[in-house]
Specification:
The chain is of the alpha/beta class and 270 residues long. It is built from nine helices and ten strands. Strands 1, 2, 3, 4, 5, 6, 7, 8, 9 and 10 form a ten-stranded mixed β-sheet that branches. The longest helix is centred in the middle third of the chain and has 20 residues. It is globular and about 55 Å long.
């Protein structure tokens, strides 16, 4: 089969194409046929316009339309990051109007809100008043709205887009299951530490950190493990190969994330 590192590089290169174009069926079909990023951007532009035009039909009250449209127009620019309802996207809109609009758009599955967790024991304790993490329907739409293709996997944007793609993958994986995805953050009086995603797995808690660059230090994840006292399964998703690292963290390459449950069993980390 050749060098495993070479296979990891090949798989990673193919996965980056998915990061660029997203997973919407018409976009994927076009790119598979033509291998043309310009064509996919034209399709994404049309699809995004349809979302903006259609969202108004979900307005239940007079005047609600503008809030729904603002969420759909501004949301992709905040994908993969934390946000608050109040003045979302520098809109000047109040928390009440924005929270209602977000819930409506979430119900039609255009976005997902990831809630903060401060516990490391079952059951998870969700903190609904803290900032939330925004995951958009599809990474292709996010890329189109931000129009940053030349720098897609570089700098600050790389961190956000990889949190988006990991979140998008996990949301899809959990659809229809009685599990809620969260992100872990210490209380302010306990210091500063934040882990990108967490969820219950059997009688333990998975803590997952996204690493888009070459650095793999996981200080926040280590703090979560320490506070969990044996209850936390630490996972790092990166461009590195699949392995159980020396620090006890299960490293999973981005392109294998959907198979995470299999790795828990095969590597006997549970």
């Amino acid at each position: 089969l050749g060098d495993k590192n070479n296979w990891n590089d090949i798989a990673s290169d193919e996965y980056k194409k998915y990061i660029f174009i997203g997973g919407m069926p018409e976009v994927v079909a076009s790119f598979a046929k033509n291998q043309n990023y310009y064509d996919t951007k034209q399709i994404l532009s049309r699809l995004y316009s349809v979302y903006i035009d259609d969202v108004s039909k979900y307005a239940k009250r007079r005047g609600e339309k503008k809030y729904l449209e603002w969420v759909v127009e501004s949301g992709p620019r905040h994908a993969g990051g934390l946000f608050r309802y109040e003045n979302f996207g520098e809109s000047g809109y109040r928390s009440r109007e924005m929270s209602d609009a977000f819930r409506t758009v979430e119900k039609v599955m255009v976005l997902n809100q990831i809630i903060s967790v401060n516990s490391t024991n079952y059951p998870l304790h969700f903190k609904f008043k803290r900032p939330r993490k925004l995951i958009w329907l599809d990474v292709g739409i996010v890329n189109y709205c931000l129009n940053t293709y030349p720098d897609l996997l570089k700098g600050v944007y790389a961190g956000k887009i990889m949190e988006q793609i990991v979140g998008q993958t996990l949301v899809a994986k959990f659809k229809g299951k009685p599990l809620q995805l969260g992100y872990w953050a210490k209380d302010k009086d306990e210091g500063s530490a934040e882990v990108d995603y967490c969820w219950q797995y059997n009688d333990k808690i998975v803590g997952l950190e996204v690493k888009s660059g070459v650095g793999l230090k996981s200080k926040s994840l280590s703090k979560m493990v320490d506070s969990g006292k044996g209850s936390v399964i630490p996972v790092r998703v990166s461009w590195n190969k699949l392995e159980l690292a020396n620090d006890g963290i299960l490293n999973i390459p981005f392109y294998l994330l959907e198979r995470i449950d299999e790795f828990f069993d095969s590597l006997k980390t549970v």
